Amino acid sequence: MGRLVATLVLVMCSAACSLARAHVGGLRRGVERANMRGRLLADAAAAGGGGGVVPIYWSQPLYMANLTIGTPPQPASAIIHLAGEFVWTQCAPCRRCFKQDLPLFNRSASSTYRPEPCDSARCESVPAHSCSGDGACGYERKTLYWDWDTFGIGGTDTFAIGTATASLGFGCAMDSNIEQLWGASGVVGLGRTPWSLVGQMNATAFSYCLAPHGAAGKKSALLLGDSAKLAGGKSAATTPLVNTSDDSSDYMIHLEGIKFGDVIIATPPNGSVVLVDTIFGVSFLVDAAFQAIKKAVTVAVGAAPIATPTKPFDLCFPKAAPAAGANSSLPLPDVVLTFQGAAALTVPPSKYMYDAGNGTVCLAMMSSAMLNLTTDLSILGRLHQENIHFLFDLDKETLSFEPADCSSLS
Ligand SMILES: *[C@@H]1O[C@H](CO)[C@@H](O)[C@H](O)[C@H]1NC(C)=O
Ligand SMILES: *[C@@H]1O[C@H](CO)[C@@H](O)[C@H](O)[C@H]1NC(C)=O
Ligand SMILES: *[C@@H]1O[C@H](CO)[C@@H](O)[C@H](O)[C@H]1NC(C)=O
Ligand SMILES: *[C@@H]1O[C@H](CO)[C@@H](O)[C@H](O)[C@H]1NC(C)=O
Ligand SMILES: *[C@@H]1O[C@H](CO)[C@@H](O)[C@H](O)[C@H]1NC(C)=O
Ligand SMILES: *[C@@H]1O[C@H](CO)[C@@H](O)[C@H](O)[C@H]1NC(C)=O
Ligand SMILES: *[C@@H]1O[C@H](CO)[C@@H](O)[C@H](O)[C@H]1NC(C)=O
Ligand SMILES: *[C@@H]1O[C@H](CO)[C@@H](O)[C@H](O)[C@H]1NC(C)=O
């Protein structure tokens, strides 16, 4: 994909919906992946044959994991970000920090903490690195999601996350312009980079399964290495990961077709590249496909849409409309997204008609035109990933998925 220069990120809240603006970009600079991979891995000591089971939980408006850092262990919590490039947490002393539920990580109180020297190969491979006064590797991460700018220093310490224990290189953020991370202390990135949790644990596979947002979402799971396996029934499907550039930390797949019941939704002749991520709430479709599905849903609901849809949605109906609700007597059809290799992902109306409060239900899909991207990109949002187990095989470069009861996996 080209760069996501200016992007808007939607966070789906369980009670109300809020729209968060974001500018994603500048992060996909050439990290020397191959070189770094080898070096970092020499340090990574993954437990359990490279495997691990990490319980993750819905904490409005995102999925998070509890972890500990250091010796003795200091508790922290982190947002699970599939496309995230690295692992970071806020550290004391902090110049400018957002509020977090747990105390800041105190490096002086950990006997296993090691600063990353600024002349190390690892430090030099980090874009925008610098030398701090004490010779530690300083880094600057510009414009992650939501205008997130963080400044900090690189270090290494022992992490325990679920059943996995590993010595990880991480960012100690001490200055950021982030307003809030909803109580979390930092972010665990699972992206295709040597600095992510997946990269540092040398995991050749990982999987996750998001139990539906809200109370049920308390029992979701991230499975690393050997632990990552699908049940592999008839409903399991596999599609290749798309390699759009050699410096992208993202996971992309290729959309070939969309059906709304029996209606074939027109997609671009060559399909569309789809970003899979855990940050976006709703899904975004290339504009032509979105307009077609919007029309098909309106026809199927058989009622006039609300003139001023609840922000940030594009299409809303009164809940009382005959076929508006997931619980209505006139059932709406499933949306079936078909990815390369005939891998079909079914999105039932309970996942695409979102209860937006105030007696309205809204289509949880939007046009990617509103993201002002430079490329034709679609995005598979979290709502449409709920109760589907996604397995990323980094050796075979494939994404497999199957419907699952996510709360029973960990
Ligand atoms: C997209 O572009 C339009 C028109 O230039 C602008 O009004 C809007 O704020 C932009 N949206 C984002 C998310 O940058
Ligand atoms: C419901 O409507 C009220 C009054 O119009 C408004 O203040 C409130 O923000 C709405 N709530 C949601 C969830 O849209
Ligand atoms: C990383 O994985 C590869 C194969 O998948 C293996 O050959 C290599 O030894 C592993 N490295 C470490 C440090 O575990
Ligand atoms: C995460 O930690 C918090 C305390 O910081 C605790 O209340 C919560 O139950 C933990 N959640 C899980 C899923 O372990
Ligand atoms: C950090 O830990 C050190 C050593 O245990 C202690 O002296 C210091 O007060 C702690 N700092 C904070 C901010 O808690
Ligand atoms: C993607 O393609 C580029 C160029 O063909 C190649 O250098 C790179 O290794 C590929 N990346 C992956 C993850 O396969
Ligand atoms: C679509 O794919 C065909 C065959 O791979 C290619 O020749 C054509 O340029 C592509 N069109 C677009 C718009 O990308
Ligand atoms: C369907 O019914 C359930 C349980 O009564 C309710 O929680 C949910 O909001 C309803 N969904 C819609 C779209 O009305």
TrEMBL record:
Keywords linked to the UniProt accession: Aspartyl protease, Glycoprotein, Hydrolase, Protease, Signal
All residue ranges annotated as the Peptidase A1 domain in the record: 63-402
Keyword Signal listed: yes
First and last residue of the signal peptide: 1-22
Domain of life: Eukaryota
GO cellular component: extracellular region
GO BP: any one term: proteolysis
Pfam hit, one: TAXi_N
InterPro entries recorded: Pepsin-like_plant, PEPTIDASE_A1, Peptidase_aspartic_dom_sf, Plant_Aspart_Prot_A1, TAXi_C, TAXi_N
GO molecular function, one term: aspartic-type endopeptidase activity
Family from the record: Belongs to the peptidase A1 family.
Protein name: Peptidase A1 domain-containing protein
Natural source organism: Oryza meridionalis
